[in-house]
Amino acid sequence: MRMWLVDPRLMCRRHLLGEHVELHMLAGCLRRGKSIDGYLQGLVDPALIACRHEQLVREMNNRGFSHRSPLDAPECPQPAASISPERNLAELRRRCPDCASIAAPPAEC
């Protein structure tokens, strides 16, 4: 499981939908009381599940995808993890030619 926390507009279809699925998996693990300790080292931040899900859904809708999986994010007592969106974007672009080919959108005011 991984939360890229990269601007969703910079993600290819596969990574956008993949992170969406992994958020649902992460929420399910937390609801079932499973340990996610191994993922707290810069891979996931349980406190950001709901917000990140909304960001991804907004981009999915912008791309014309049909979103039908609302997320019931559990309360997360785990401490926030340190995730670097800048390093993750560099990693995505290194791994994925589709992500690398997406131009950065104009800055928002």
TrEMBL record:
<dbReference type="Pfam" id="PF03013">
    <property type="entry name" value="Pyr_excise"/>
</dbReference>
<dbReference type="GO" id="GO:0016829">
    <property type="term" value="F:lyase activity"/>
</dbReference>
<dbReference type="InterPro" id="IPR004260">
    <property type="entry name" value="Pyr-dimer_DNA_glycosylase"/>
</dbReference>
<keyword id="KW-0456">Lyase</keyword>
<protein>
    <submittedName>
        <fullName>Pyrimidine dimer DNA glycosylase/DNA-(Apurinic or apyrimidinic site) lyase</fullName>
    </submittedName>
</protein>
